[in-house]
Amino acid sequence: AAETTWDMPVPYGDTNFHTQNVVQFADDIKSATGGELAITVHSNGSLFKHPDIKNAVRNGLAQIGEVLGSRLSNEDPVFGLDSIPFLATSYDDAKKLYDASRDEIAAKLDAQGLVLLYSVPWPPQGIYTKKEIKTVDDLKGLKMRAYNAATEKLAQLAGAIPTQVEVPDLPTAFSTGRVEAMITSPSTGANSQVWDYLSHYSDAQAWLPRNMVFVNKAAFEALPEEQQQAVRDAAAAAEARGWEASKKETEDKTQELKDNGITVTAPSPELRDGLAAFGETMTEEWAASAGESGQAILDAYKQ
Amino acid sequence: MRRILDRVYDLSEWLAMASLCAIAALVFAQVAGRVVDRVIGLFGIAPYGFLVPSLAEIAGYLLVAASFLALAGSLRAGEQIRVSLVLARLPDSARRVIETIVLVLAAALAVFFFAYCVRMVLDSHRFNEVSYGIIPIQLWIPQAAMATGVGVFALALLDDLVTILRGGSASYMATGDGHAEEHL
Amino acid sequence: MDLLVLALCLGLGLLMLLATGLWVALGLMAVGIAAILIKVSVPAGAVMATTVWGAINSWDLAALPMFIWMGEILFRTRLAEDMFAGLAPWMRRLPGRLVHVNILGCAIFAAVSGSSAATTATIGRMSLPELEKRGYDERMAIGSLAGSGTLGLLIPPSLILIVYGAATEQSIARLFIAGVVPGIMLAGLFMGYTIVWALLNRDKMPEADERVPYLERLWQTRRLFPVIALIAGVIGSIYAGFASPTEAAVVGVVLALGLAFATGTLTRRTFLEALRGASRTSAMIILILAGAAVLTAAMGYTGIPRALAGFIAEQQFSPYALLAALTVFFIVLGCFLDGISIVVLTASIILPMVEAAGLDIIWFGIYLVLVVEMSQITPPVGFNLFVIQGLTGYDILKVARMTLPFFCLMIVAVVLIVVFPELALWLPQTMLAR
Ligand code: NA
Ligand code: NA
Questions:
Q1: Which of A243, B64, B127, B168 gets the most CB atoms within 10 Å of its CB?
Q2: Which residues cross the membrane (chain B) (predicted)?
Q3: Ligand with minimal distance to C159 CA
Q4: How far is the C-alpha of A30 from the C-alpha of A64, rounded, in Å?
Q5: What is the mean pLDDT of chain B?
Q6: pLDDT at position B181, please?
Q7: Do the domain assignments include residue B120?
Q8: A58, A71, A166 ranked by CB distance to B132: nearest
Q9: What is the pTM of this model?
Q10: Scanning every residue of chain B, which has its alpha carbon at the shortest distance from the alpha carbon of A54?
């Protein structure tokens, strides 16, 4: 049979653990199919930019791709489930939540001609500031980064001032006081060397957003059966490997933050309770927007 | 016909200029909001935290509208860049032939581009594509502005092609060799 | 088809299309589509629409029309004339005189603008007519503008450094700080060259202005206040925490409108002329960026830049030989692609090489910016050349010839930064030492 080549746009750079997992995934497929199916990984948005990757795969401009799932939360609430603050705050809970919602997510993607292959979480999101956050009251009046509806709502619940800052602008924005707090993973914090412009990290474990890898359904079904199976097997392996890599990433990058002089604190019980209350409000709102199928997912998760 | 076409180019350019003004107005409102917060802070009043939601995304979309709707106007003003050194050395008759071929190629390309822009708009509409930020914005709207701009651009190229085939001279030549420097 | 053959065919095809007088932007699109049709089986039209949409729908890019608009407004006020009149008495004894305003103007403007096209367009709009009016040598005025415009990318903020920082997961703050000293050094090289050129070509310099008594000179200097207020307002809005670098462009527009109003040059007519001029010029630059994006996507699909970079990787060069090879590689690629595309397309292959060679990643970022900055002034695809063709009507090839000495100075800067890596590394290590 003639060799099939696929292009795979991914949003993050080569040193990112998601990208490294994707590269391993592509290698696995290549060796499992004896080179019959070769995937070229285009890292760092070099073929398509992050906002365009899903459409590019849907239209067959690329056969397979990866995006941050919650980027699609304005399309359908189910994509935003993993990013509800303080709903699932550990790897075990995140896995439970993923298991409860996977079929629904896969169905939504299927309606667009996409097949969900696997999904891997980022490390738990924590709060970065220039001063220590002991209770939720310490967040009052702080300019907090908001980049979508959920983070805006969270800032509002905390009495903080939602502020829009683009990622590359963060160092300048923190240094000049346009923003005073942000919620992101220890990965992103360490990779962008936040110690150059802020000092405190509260390991609040707010949520574990997941990346999704999906394939164009037509391209996938055009493969011979044994190659489809090879892709599915490699995806299952990548998912298992990715969750472990994410845990290790959390440890390594949190350590890196400490090593570079960031004060890393576990949230106090008061802070934890205050944040959990915001989580409940936002979960209720999410359930209201996601309808019956959303409530069913939540029920399955809470069992 | 001439008057209708000129109206279309004009209208498109006005919309482009309005989009630029809208970017400036939205961004300035955001900056002014921060200044106001700082000033009332001096009087011990808590900041209001004025926010232009989805500012970065909206500005990007307005930029698309501004850029593509201005294409026809900038083409006809001779502002679009091309290399004219070689052409300038050819005799008039040869120059005319090449100019025609270039216009055929350019118009074909623009029509092709336009067709796929329209497909992108329909596709975004069909799959209900929305932006990611605080306000979910239907992507087909800014994409339709892009398609319209490319369509008017294609029209302007076809217009010039017809003009040159009829023995006239193309709009962008009016200001000299593709050069529209104003002398004030 | 062999990739090298395909690359050569595409390059030649582009040159031929451009020679016939096809618009640059459309030429880039045509070659990009041809590459996709030849080499890959994806719908080329859909790639074009998606790529162009993705490339132009950008917050960072929104600063470009705003800065150009600011330049158009200022061009219509007396501000540029005032600035040159205020500076002229002070520059009298410095060989090269007001040409230095071009260079320094770009260097200062680079501190707010992250793009070299915006820097060139805004400063050039004001300086070129003034220098022409005062009888300065055209080659020198245009060459120094095209060269200094590239400082927009080296002196922070810088769009290329942002892209490089994202690709390598390096701190953008560190990269920005690292660019400061090399940026000042490059401006210094340009000024040094201007001094030497002026001493050697006294006949080509305009008559020196009358010597102005000291007190009167001070009095003349009051004409600089509006410019200083404008610069302070735009830069200050960033550092006081009122505006992001993109937003500062709009602060510039508003302040320029305010100045025009204060000096009585703001009428309905000048307002609309400035707006229309900005709209047309930025549509020109952005359509070329769109064409470049299509070609970049085609390069991503065909893998030509990857393959070429991979070829360099196979040679197992020593660090200096590697840098020499990369410099040639980037200069050649830079003739056809824009700087940001080059960084994005080759980062995956180049960076492992660079790490293996033991080079510092921050340092390499600065080296990379310096080298790909040259792509802004090499024909046929060089954005500063396009901007200056738009300003003067001179063909890009003519502009490129005028810029050649400054291109050579940039090579000197690359050599200096390779020999003395501290030029890039000293400041970040000192400022951010923990
Ligand atoms: Na800059
Ligand atoms: Na170039």
A1: B64
A2: 12-32, 58-77, 97-122, 134-158
A3: 1
A4: 14
A5: 92
A6: 36
A7: yes
A8: A71
A9: 0.95
A10: B129
Query: Given the structure tokens 């510039």, which residue do they identify?
Result: C252
Q: Which ligand is nearest to the CA of C248?
A: 1
> DSSP letter at C358?
T
Residue C278 maps to a domain: no
Counted domains in chain B:
1
A100: enclosing H helix or E strand: helix A91-110
CB–CB contact A196 C174 (8 Å): yes
Residue A256 pLDDT > 50? yes
Segment A287-302 mean pLDDT: 95
What is the C-alpha separation between C148 and C125, in angstroms, rounded? Answer: 14
Residue C228 lies in a domain: yes
**First vs last C-alpha separation in chain A:** 48
State residue C273 phi and psi, 5-degree precision.
-65, -45
Q: Which of C102, C280, C260 is nearest to C194 (CA)?
A: C102
Task: List the structure tokens of A298.
Answer: 């939540």
Assess if residue B20 is contained within a domain: yes
Domain count, chain C: 1
* Domain-located, residue B81: yes
Q: How far apart are CA C420 and CA C408, in angstroms?
A: 18
* Ligand 1 centroid distance, CA of A169 (Å): 13
A32 interface with B at CB cutoff 8 Å:
no
Running DSSP on this structure, what letter comes out for residue A123? P
SS3 of B9, please?
helix
Nearest-CA distance from B61 to chain C in Å?
A: 5
Widest CA span in chain A: 65
User: How close B105 gets to chain C, by Cα (Å)?
Assistant: 8
Q: Is the ipTM reported for this complex over the cut 0.90? A: yes
Helical H segments across C159-303, by residue range: 159-168, 172-200, 214-221, 225-239, 245-262, 268-302
pLDDT tens for each residue of C265-319:
899 999 999 999 999 999 999 999 999 999 999 999 999 999 999 999 899 899 9
With CA atoms as reference, report the closest residue to A196 among C111, C163, C433. C433
Q: Looking at chain B, which subunits does it touch, using at least 3 CB pairs closer than 8 Å as the criterion?
A: A, C
Residues 6+ apart with CB under 8 A from A111: none
The span from the CA of B80 to the CA of C287, in Å, is: 9
Q: Is residue B53 part of a domain?
A: yes
Average pLDDT over residues C64-71: 96
State which residues form the domain around C391: 58-266+303-432
Backbone angles phi, psi at B41, to 5 degrees: -60, -35
Whether residue C434 has pLDDT greater than 60: no
Say yes or no to pLDDT of C216 above 90: no
The verdict on a CB contact (< 8 Å) between A59 and B49 is: no
Domain that includes residue B118, residue range: 2-173
The C-alpha atoms of residue A246 and residue A197 are separated, in whole angstroms, by 25
Residue C33 lies in a domain: no
How is residue A193 written in tokens? 């060397």
